[in-house]
Amino acid sequence: MKTTLIYLILFASIFGGTHIFAQNTHFVKNGVIEFEKKANMYALLKKRITPENESYMDQAFEQYQKKNPQFKVTKSVLSFNKDKSLYKWPSTEEIPAGNFFGGDPLADLENTVFTNFNAQKSTTEKHVFENKYLVTDTVRKITWKITDETRDIVGYQCRRANAIIMDSIYVVAFYTDQIAVSGGPESFTGLPGMILGVALPHENVTWFATKVSEVAVPEKELMPPSKGKPVDNKGLTDILKGAMKNWGDYAQHYLQAFSL
User: Fold this and answer.
1) Nearest alpha carbon to residue 80 among 120, 27, 33
2) pTM reported for the whole predicted model
């Protein structure tokens, strides 16, 4: 009888402590997240050098290294509530790289992405060379594999998930269930919490949160972009394939970047 009583007290203590912990756990549902995007320009540009062009591209690459840092760093912001989010890039005066060798479509990519979580729809403003497109479609379906690996990102405990998108791009994401919104930077969504970090290891690009502010976001700040030629994902892909049909090996990299 005494042993039974001890077990009952122990069970009550554990259950009560868990219940109190659950009651005190705070889940963020509104706020603004600042992201830092880093592109390894040395790695991206070196991939352009082939046996056919190395006689002049090696020299261009060396000149680029002398005048430019290894990483191109840009800032973006994700505003969100429990129903929708808007990912955008503050206007900045960018310093030109200084030669034709300095640009890359993935490093330079600055999409504005509106996501309606309830309707599972997205509207994305994309700048493709001199053209602007307004891409409206369903939210990208990503088949994530959640792992046991964790890491801290700006004070939030995050769990790692892996995926393959566009048949060949390997994605590593870190999400936190402390932010109870299934969003993230760019078009990365679909995990049981907010994505605070994304890495495309083979594409040499990352997005990681640098600050999370829990604030109420006015509805007027969560409106979809409205400028650009209306199109859906398939329509944009068809346009890009037609425009780059004679680009050879370069076409795939540009197609993937503009389809992100």
Assistant:
1) 33
2) 0.86
